[in-house]
């Protein structure tokens, strides 16, 4: 009895399992088309998009417009499958099994769980995958992976070109273009992937341009050109401008550190000025013609950056030059060198001269005042030792050298003061003052700016006034009555030769005459 029961159960299980396998196989081979209000909504038990999977239905009778469910038997179906039209018959209904007979089946529950898991995995895979259109090119599907490879291998320009190519293709296949369009979900997913790769590319380019202590600056701005160009093409002009200016700052500081401090301040400041302004000129040209050509996106930021860097450089120059006991003779060539280099930037559209004049006005005004006080003390000391005796040139060689020196300075009438071969009807004090005053005038011309004009004129006036006071006092001194004629000759030389020459040079340089010449008129009256 027991064996008969076991055999019966085995036979029933065999038939049920065979029917189930046959039904499952038929289900995989056939396609069930579900309808809702006359429109296909299911294809192999999953929602489809007719835009991506074309479906052709041929019916001999009107298709029902209401209710859900399979087509009636009299409606013939043809569905699109892999590029061909395939006719399907109505799926057979799986056999109905008496659940009471299977209630004792020991593997039923496990089998149902396994089928449910398979269905869930299949639904998840269909939900996660984007169903591509049949005309999607193979290269488009591989774009994300190709971009990852190009970015890792640092082929940034190729990566940008591929991004632009993909964007153009996606735009050309939109429904509004009238061409065969892509699936909307596929396009959305592809655009998200492109945006992610653009962000990654931006991060990599920023890393390449960012200055770090371990990174070499030997390549300079030339090595940064491709990175700047790609960032600009990605519409990241603001970011590329900031990185470009930060790189320029690092290059400037590195170049200035290489300038040697050997020798006098003039040599060092001249070398530093050459390095600074040469690099600034190259950076200006790089900005205008290479990095940001034909656009003003970075112009304002560059002017602000150049102003900041120039102020730092000028403050550095001031610390180097304006130290204790710095003479005007040592300052003026350095300032002139910096001013000349600064003026050369004007041809590139960058005028920083007003910043230089403003920064140097205070220190130079103080330097002019200190120079004036030192020279007046020197004049007082020499005047106290003046014996009003003719100056001996010793020999003809010294005489010729003396005449050439003063002739080069503009005093061509010195030969009229010669007596004999080597004697000059001018005192040693007058000769020393002439050299001092001509040197002071030349130094003032090198420092000349509109802000320093008053200080320069005052310095020239005060120094000349002290010398003329000495002449005036000597003419009034009764003890020097015997040397009066000689003193008058020296006064005539100072007034009609030296001072006249200085007036003409002053007017030629500043384009106006000096008004502080009242002392000259007073001394002229004494010489009558």
UniProtKB/TrEMBL annotation:
InterPro entries: Cullin_repeat-like_dom_sf, Exo84, Exo84_C, Exo84_C_1, Exo84_C_2. Keywords: Exocytosis, Protein transport, Transport. Residues 101-128 are annotated as: Disordered. It comes from the Eukaryota. Residues 110-124 have a biased composition (Acidic residues). Pfam families: Exo84_C. GO terms for cellular component: exocyst. One of its GO terms (biological process) is exocytosis. Residues 138-352 form the Exocyst component Exo84 C-terminal domain. Belongs to the EXO84 family. PANTHER family: EXOCYST COMPLEX COMPONENT 8 (PTHR21426:SF12). This is Exocyst complex component 8. It comes from Cacopsylla melanoneura.
């Amino acid at each position: 009895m027991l064996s008969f029961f076991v055999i019966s159960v085995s036979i029933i299980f065999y038939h049920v399992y065979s029917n189930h396998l046959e039904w499952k196989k038929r289900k995989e081979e056939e396609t069930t088309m579900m309808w809702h209000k006359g429109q296909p909504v299911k294809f192999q038990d999953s929602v489809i998009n007719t835009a991506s999977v074309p479906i052709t239905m041929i019916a001999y009778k009107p298709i029902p417009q209401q209710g859900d469910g399979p087509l009636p038997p009299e409606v013939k179906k043809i569905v699109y499958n892999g590029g061909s039209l395939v006719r399907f018959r109505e799926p057979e209904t799986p056999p109905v099994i008496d659940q009471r007979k299977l209630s004792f089946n020991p593997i039923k529950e496990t089998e149902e769980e396994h089928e449910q898991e398979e269905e869930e995995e299949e639904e998840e895979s269909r939900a996660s995958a984007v169903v591509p259109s049949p005309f999607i090119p193979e290269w488009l599907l591989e774009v994300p992976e190709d971009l990852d490879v190009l970015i890792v291998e640092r082929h940034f320009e190729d990566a940008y070109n591929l991004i632009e190519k993909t964007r153009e293709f996606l735009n050309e296949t939109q429904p509004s273009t009238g061409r065969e369009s892509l699936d909307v979900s596929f396009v959305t997913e592809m655009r998200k992937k492109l945006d992610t790769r653009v962000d990654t590319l931006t991060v990599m380019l920023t890393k390449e341009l960012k200055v770090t202590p371990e990174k070499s600056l030997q390549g300079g701005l030339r090595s940064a050109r491709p990175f700047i160009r790609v960032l600009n093409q990605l519409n990241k002009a603001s970011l590329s401008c900031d990185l470009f200016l930060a790189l320029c700052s690092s290059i400037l500081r590195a170049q200035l550190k290489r300038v040697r401090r050997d020798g006098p301040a003039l040599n060092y400041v001249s070398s530093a000025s050459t390095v600074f302004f040469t690099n600034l000129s190259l950076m200006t040209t790089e900005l205008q013609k290479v990095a940001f050509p034909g656009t003003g996106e970075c112009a304002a930021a560059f002017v602000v950056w150049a102003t900041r860097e120039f102020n730092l450089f000028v403050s550095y120059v001031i610390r180097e030059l304006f130290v204790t006991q710095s003479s005007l003779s040592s300052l003026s060539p350095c300032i002139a060198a910096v001013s000349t280099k600064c003026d050369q930037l004007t041809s590139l559209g960058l005028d920083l001269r007003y910043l230089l004049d403003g920064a140097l006005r205070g220190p130079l005004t103080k330097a002019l005042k200190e120079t004036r006080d030192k020279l007046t003390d020197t004049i007082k000391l020499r005047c106290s030792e003046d014996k009003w005796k003719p100056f001996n040139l010793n020999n003809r060689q010294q005489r010729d050298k003396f005449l050439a020196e003063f002739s080069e300075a503009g005093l061509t009438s010195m030969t009229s003061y010669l007596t004999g071969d080597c004697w000059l009807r001018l005192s040693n004090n007058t000769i020393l003052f002439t050299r001092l005053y001509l040197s002071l005038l030349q130094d003032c011309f090198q420092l000349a700016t509109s802000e320093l004009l008053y200080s320069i004129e005052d310095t020239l006036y005060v120094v000349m006034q002290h010398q003329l006071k000495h002449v005036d006092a000597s003419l009034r001194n009764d003890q020097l009555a015997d040397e009066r004629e000689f003193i008058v000759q020296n006064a005539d030389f100072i007034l009609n030769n030296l001072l006249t020459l200085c007036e003409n040079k002053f007017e030629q340089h500043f384009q106006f005459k000096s008004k502080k010449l009242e002392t000259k008129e007073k001394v002229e009256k004494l010489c009558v």
